[in-house]
Amino acid sequence: MKLKVPSMEDVGFQMAPMIDCVFQLMIFFMCASHLHQTLDNPKIEIPVAANASIPEELSDRRYITIKDDGTILLGGNTATIPQVKTAIEQAAKTIPNLKIFLRADKRLKHKKVREVMQACADAGASEIIFAAYQSEAR
Amino acid sequence: MKIPRVLEEAIEEVQDLQIAPLIDCVFQLLIYFMVAASLHKTEADLGISLPGTIVQSQALKMPDEQIVEIDAKGNVTLNGRTYDKNGSQDMPELTATLIRYRQAAEAAKTKALITIMAADDTVHQRVVDVMNACAAAQIKNVTFSASN
Protein backbone atom coordinates (compact mmCIF):
# COMPACT_ATOMS: atom_id res chain seq x y z
CA MET A 1 0.00 0.00 0.00
CA LYS A 2 1.27 3.40 -0.88
CA LEU A 3 1.07 5.99 1.88
CA LYS A 4 0.92 9.66 1.14
CA VAL A 5 3.57 11.51 3.04
CA PRO A 6 2.43 15.07 3.94
CA SER A 7 4.59 17.69 2.45
CA MET A 8 6.87 19.74 4.69
CA GLU A 9 4.97 22.89 3.75
CA ASP A 10 2.07 21.86 6.06
CA VAL A 11 4.28 22.09 9.14
CA GLY A 12 4.68 25.84 8.76
CA PHE A 13 3.72 28.17 11.63
CA GLN A 14 0.10 29.35 11.37
CA MET A 15 -0.05 33.06 12.12
CA ALA A 16 -3.80 33.65 11.75
CA PRO A 17 -5.04 31.59 14.77
CA MET A 18 -2.21 32.95 16.92
CA ILE A 19 -3.21 36.53 16.13
CA ASP A 20 -6.84 35.61 16.87
CA CYS A 21 -5.87 34.28 20.30
CA VAL A 22 -3.70 37.29 21.08
CA PHE A 23 -6.51 39.68 20.13
CA GLN A 24 -8.96 37.76 22.32
CA LEU A 25 -6.54 37.95 25.25
CA MET A 26 -5.97 41.63 24.64
CA ILE A 27 -9.71 42.38 24.67
CA PHE A 28 -10.09 40.39 27.90
CA PHE A 29 -7.31 42.24 29.70
CA MET A 30 -8.53 45.59 28.35
CA CYS A 31 -11.93 44.94 29.92
CA ALA A 32 -10.35 43.73 33.19
CA SER A 33 -8.17 46.82 33.49
CA HIS A 34 -11.19 49.05 32.83
CA LEU A 35 -13.06 47.40 35.71
CA HIS A 36 -10.04 48.01 37.89
CA GLN A 37 -10.16 51.75 37.19
CA THR A 38 -13.89 51.92 37.94
CA LEU A 39 -13.63 50.12 41.29
CA ASP A 40 -10.59 51.99 42.50
CA ASN A 41 -12.11 55.40 42.07
CA PRO A 42 -11.95 57.07 44.57
CA LYS A 43 -8.73 55.71 45.98
CA ILE A 44 -8.99 54.53 49.55
CA GLU A 45 -7.14 51.89 51.55
CA ILE A 46 -9.57 49.11 52.32
CA PRO A 47 -8.84 47.18 55.57
CA VAL A 48 -7.60 43.61 55.48
CA ALA A 49 -9.56 40.65 56.90
CA ALA A 50 -8.38 37.15 56.09
CA ASN A 51 -11.80 35.64 56.77
CA ALA A 52 -13.69 37.94 54.43
CA SER A 53 -15.48 36.13 51.64
CA ILE A 54 -15.81 37.05 47.99
CA PRO A 55 -19.53 37.68 47.44
CA GLU A 56 -21.42 35.68 44.83
CA GLU A 57 -24.47 37.94 44.85
CA LEU A 58 -23.94 41.66 44.33
CA SER A 59 -27.50 42.80 43.77
CA ASP A 60 -29.53 44.97 46.16
CA ARG A 61 -26.43 46.83 47.28
CA ARG A 62 -25.79 50.50 47.78
CA TYR A 63 -22.20 51.61 48.08
CA ILE A 64 -21.06 54.16 50.62
CA THR A 65 -17.39 55.16 50.61
CA ILE A 66 -15.74 56.97 53.50
CA LYS A 67 -12.28 58.40 52.88
CA ASP A 68 -9.62 58.68 55.58
CA ASP A 69 -10.42 62.38 56.10
CA GLY A 70 -14.05 61.51 56.85
CA THR A 71 -15.49 62.55 53.49
CA ILE A 72 -18.54 60.47 52.63
CA LEU A 73 -19.09 59.55 49.00
CA LEU A 74 -22.42 58.31 47.77
CA GLY A 75 -22.59 57.33 44.12
CA GLY A 76 -19.42 59.28 43.40
CA ASN A 77 -20.67 62.51 44.97
CA THR A 78 -19.78 63.96 48.35
CA ALA A 79 -22.64 63.63 50.82
CA THR A 80 -23.48 64.63 54.37
CA ILE A 81 -25.02 62.35 57.00
CA PRO A 82 -28.58 63.72 56.43
CA GLN A 83 -28.13 63.24 52.67
CA VAL A 84 -27.01 59.66 53.25
CA LYS A 85 -30.05 59.04 55.42
CA THR A 86 -32.42 60.46 52.80
CA ALA A 87 -30.81 58.45 50.00
CA ILE A 88 -30.99 55.21 51.98
CA GLU A 89 -34.61 55.87 52.92
CA GLN A 90 -35.49 56.30 49.25
CA ALA A 91 -33.54 53.19 48.25
CA ALA A 92 -35.15 51.14 51.03
CA LYS A 93 -38.59 51.91 49.58
CA THR A 94 -37.75 50.26 46.26
CA ILE A 95 -35.36 47.54 47.45
CA PRO A 96 -36.78 45.35 50.22
CA ASN A 97 -33.52 43.53 50.97
CA LEU A 98 -31.31 46.57 50.80
CA LYS A 99 -27.70 45.97 51.75
CA ILE A 100 -25.28 48.77 52.52
CA PHE A 101 -21.76 48.05 51.38
CA LEU A 102 -19.53 50.26 53.48
CA ARG A 103 -16.13 50.97 51.94
CA ALA A 104 -14.28 52.71 54.75
CA ASP A 105 -10.60 53.58 54.76
CA LYS A 106 -8.63 51.52 57.26
CA ARG A 107 -7.14 54.67 58.87
CA LEU A 108 -10.56 56.21 59.44
CA LYS A 109 -11.66 56.90 63.01
CA HIS A 110 -14.52 54.72 64.20
CA LYS A 111 -16.66 57.71 65.14
CA LYS A 112 -17.37 58.47 61.49
CA VAL A 113 -18.20 54.85 60.70
CA ARG A 114 -20.62 54.78 63.61
CA GLU A 115 -22.34 57.97 62.42
CA VAL A 116 -22.87 56.47 58.98
CA MET A 117 -24.09 53.17 60.46
CA GLN A 118 -26.48 55.08 62.68
CA ALA A 119 -27.85 56.97 59.66
CA CYS A 120 -28.31 53.69 57.77
CA ALA A 121 -30.07 52.08 60.72
CA ASP A 122 -32.34 55.14 61.13
CA ALA A 123 -33.16 55.00 57.41
CA GLY A 124 -34.21 51.37 57.73
CA ALA A 125 -31.27 49.61 56.11
CA SER A 126 -31.45 46.02 57.25
CA GLU A 127 -27.94 44.90 56.47
CA ILE A 128 -24.53 46.53 56.52
CA ILE A 129 -21.53 44.83 54.95
CA PHE A 130 -17.97 46.00 55.41
CA ALA A 131 -15.53 45.91 52.54
CA ALA A 132 -12.23 44.18 53.18
CA TYR A 133 -9.38 42.68 51.23
CA GLN A 134 -8.53 39.08 51.98
CA SER A 135 -4.81 39.71 51.93
CA GLU A 136 -2.37 42.57 52.05
CA ALA A 137 -0.15 41.27 49.28
CA ARG A 138 -1.13 41.94 45.66
CA MET B 1 2.62 49.32 -21.58
CA LYS B 2 4.45 46.66 -19.68
CA ILE B 3 5.47 47.43 -16.09
CA PRO B 4 9.07 46.52 -15.38
CA ARG B 5 9.51 43.44 -13.17
CA VAL B 6 11.48 45.36 -10.55
CA LEU B 7 8.63 47.86 -10.16
CA GLU B 8 6.04 45.06 -9.92
CA GLU B 9 7.96 43.47 -7.04
CA ALA B 10 8.24 46.81 -5.28
CA ILE B 11 4.47 47.41 -5.54
CA GLU B 12 3.74 43.91 -4.20
CA GLU B 13 6.06 44.50 -1.29
CA VAL B 14 4.29 47.74 -0.38
CA GLN B 15 0.82 46.19 -0.63
CA ASP B 16 1.61 43.19 1.60
CA LEU B 17 0.49 43.53 5.22
CA GLN B 18 3.52 43.69 7.48
CA ILE B 19 2.74 41.12 10.15
CA ALA B 20 5.89 41.48 12.25
CA PRO B 21 5.41 45.09 13.48
CA LEU B 22 1.69 44.41 13.98
CA ILE B 23 2.46 41.49 16.26
CA ASP B 24 5.05 43.58 18.09
CA CYS B 25 2.46 46.26 18.81
CA VAL B 26 -0.19 43.75 19.83
CA PHE B 27 2.19 42.01 22.22
CA GLN B 28 3.18 45.32 23.77
CA LEU B 29 -0.49 46.18 24.31
CA LEU B 30 -1.19 42.70 25.65
CA ILE B 31 1.62 42.95 28.21
CA TYR B 32 0.45 46.43 29.24
CA PHE B 33 -3.14 45.33 29.85
CA MET B 34 -2.03 42.13 31.60
CA VAL B 35 0.01 44.16 34.06
CA ALA B 36 -2.80 46.71 34.52
CA ALA B 37 -5.38 43.99 35.12
CA SER B 38 -3.23 42.08 37.61
CA LEU B 39 -3.14 45.16 39.88
CA HIS B 40 -6.83 44.79 40.60
CA LYS B 41 -7.76 43.20 43.94
CA THR B 42 -11.31 42.02 44.48
CA GLU B 43 -13.06 43.55 47.44
CA ALA B 44 -14.56 40.93 49.69
CA ASP B 45 -17.36 40.87 52.23
CA LEU B 46 -16.39 40.36 55.81
CA GLY B 47 -19.14 37.78 56.15
CA ILE B 48 -20.85 39.67 58.94
CA SER B 49 -24.13 41.37 58.31
CA LEU B 50 -25.38 43.93 60.74
CA PRO B 51 -29.02 44.35 61.58
CA GLY B 52 -28.22 47.99 62.28
CA THR B 53 -27.08 49.79 65.36
CA ILE B 54 -29.16 49.80 68.48
CA VAL B 55 -28.90 51.33 71.89
CA GLN B 56 -27.98 48.49 74.18
CA SER B 57 -30.06 49.50 77.13
CA GLN B 58 -33.25 49.53 75.06
CA ALA B 59 -33.70 46.66 72.67
CA LEU B 60 -31.01 44.10 73.30
CA LYS B 61 -32.35 41.35 75.53
CA MET B 62 -30.04 38.54 74.56
CA PRO B 63 -28.87 36.49 77.51
CA ASP B 64 -25.75 35.33 75.70
CA GLU B 65 -24.40 38.69 74.62
CA GLN B 66 -20.72 39.44 74.92
CA ILE B 67 -19.31 42.94 74.61
CA VAL B 68 -15.94 43.40 72.99
CA GLU B 69 -14.40 46.76 73.83
CA ILE B 70 -11.74 48.42 71.72
CA ASP B 71 -9.96 51.47 73.08
CA ALA B 72 -8.35 54.25 71.07
CA LYS B 73 -4.95 52.51 71.17
CA GLY B 74 -6.40 49.34 69.69
CA ASN B 75 -6.45 47.25 72.87
CA VAL B 76 -9.24 44.68 72.72
CA THR B 77 -10.97 43.75 75.97
CA LEU B 78 -13.54 41.02 76.58
CA ASN B 79 -14.86 40.34 80.08
CA GLY B 80 -12.14 42.43 81.66
CA ARG B 81 -9.29 40.62 79.92
CA THR B 82 -7.19 42.23 77.23
CA TYR B 83 -6.52 40.02 74.22
CA ASP B 84 -3.70 40.04 71.66
CA LYS B 85 -1.68 42.80 73.24
CA ASN B 86 0.96 42.47 70.54
CA GLY B 87 -1.47 44.09 68.14
CA SER B 88 -1.56 41.17 65.72
CA GLN B 89 -4.23 41.44 63.06
CA ASP B 90 -5.09 37.72 63.22
CA MET B 91 -6.03 37.95 66.92
CA PRO B 92 -5.52 34.26 67.75
CA GLU B 93 -6.33 34.64 71.48
CA LEU B 94 -9.63 36.41 70.86
CA THR B 95 -10.55 33.99 68.06
CA ALA B 96 -9.97 30.98 70.34
CA THR B 97 -12.12 32.53 73.08
CA LEU B 98 -14.89 33.38 70.62
CA ILE B 99 -14.89 29.83 69.24
CA ARG B 100 -15.36 28.46 72.78
CA TYR B 101 -18.11 31.03 73.37
CA ARG B 102 -19.96 30.01 70.18
CA GLN B 103 -19.69 26.34 71.07
CA ALA B 104 -21.07 27.04 74.55
CA ALA B 105 -23.93 29.08 73.06
CA GLU B 106 -24.76 26.28 70.62
CA ALA B 107 -24.75 23.74 73.46
CA ALA B 108 -27.13 25.98 75.41
CA LYS B 109 -29.23 26.45 72.22
CA THR B 110 -28.92 30.21 72.34
CA LYS B 111 -27.64 32.73 69.87
CA ALA B 112 -24.07 33.86 70.21
CA LEU B 113 -24.12 37.63 69.96
CA ILE B 114 -21.17 39.96 69.94
CA THR B 115 -21.52 43.69 70.49
CA ILE B 116 -18.51 45.74 69.49
CA MET B 117 -17.99 48.86 71.52
CA ALA B 118 -15.21 50.88 69.94
CA ALA B 119 -13.85 54.24 71.07
CA ASP B 120 -14.30 57.26 68.82
CA ASP B 121 -10.61 57.37 67.91
CA THR B 122 -10.19 53.66 67.18
CA VAL B 123 -8.96 53.13 63.65
CA HIS B 124 -11.30 51.20 61.36
CA GLN B 125 -8.71 48.47 60.69
CA ARG B 126 -8.76 47.43 64.37
CA VAL B 127 -12.56 47.17 64.35
CA VAL B 128 -12.32 45.04 61.21
CA ASP B 129 -9.74 42.85 62.99
CA VAL B 130 -12.30 42.09 65.71
CA MET B 131 -14.99 41.41 63.11
CA ASN B 132 -12.52 39.16 61.33
CA ALA B 133 -12.04 37.21 64.57
CA CYS B 134 -15.84 36.89 64.84
CA ALA B 135 -15.97 35.58 61.28
CA ALA B 136 -13.18 33.11 62.06
CA ALA B 137 -15.20 31.91 65.06
CA GLN B 138 -18.27 31.62 62.77
CA ILE B 139 -20.27 34.12 64.80
CA LYS B 140 -22.75 35.78 62.49
CA ASN B 141 -24.62 37.95 64.95
CA VAL B 142 -22.45 40.99 65.39
CA THR B 143 -23.65 44.44 66.16
CA PHE B 144 -22.24 47.74 67.30
CA SER B 145 -22.91 49.76 70.36
CA ALA B 146 -24.52 53.08 69.47
CA SER B 147 -22.42 54.89 72.05
CA ASN B 148 -18.79 54.48 72.98
Commentary on this structure:
The complex is a heterodimer of chains A (138) and B (148). Chain A is an alpha/beta fold. Chain A is built from 3 helices and 5 strands. Chain A has helices spanning 15-39, 81-94, 110-122, and strands spanning 61-66, 72-74, 77-79, 99-104, 127-132. Chain A has a 5-stranded mixed β-sheet with strand order 3-2-1-4-5, with helices on one face. In chain A, helix 2 (81-94) packs across helix 3. In chain A, 27% of the residues are buried. The model of chain A has no long low-confidence stretch (mean pLDDT 81). Chain B is of the alpha/beta class and 148 residues long. In chain B, strands 4-3-2-5-6 form a 5-stranded mixed β-sheet, covered by helices on one side. Chain B is rod-shaped and about 105 Å long. Chain B is 43% helix and 16% strand. Chain B has helices at 5-15, 19-38, 56-59, 92-107, 124-136; strands spanning 44-45, 65-70, 76-78, 81-83, 113-118, 141-144. Chain B is built from 5 helices and 6 strands. The N and C termini of chain B lie far apart (97 Å). The chains are: A alpha/beta (138), B alpha/beta (148). Chains A and B meet through helix 1, strand 4, helix 3 and strand 5 of A and helix 2, strand 1 and helix 5 of B. Strand 5 (127-132) of chain A pairs antiparallel with strand 1 (44-45) of chain B.
Structural features:
heterodimer; A: 138 residues; alpha/beta; five-stranded mixed β-sheet; B: 148 residues; 5 helices; 43% helix
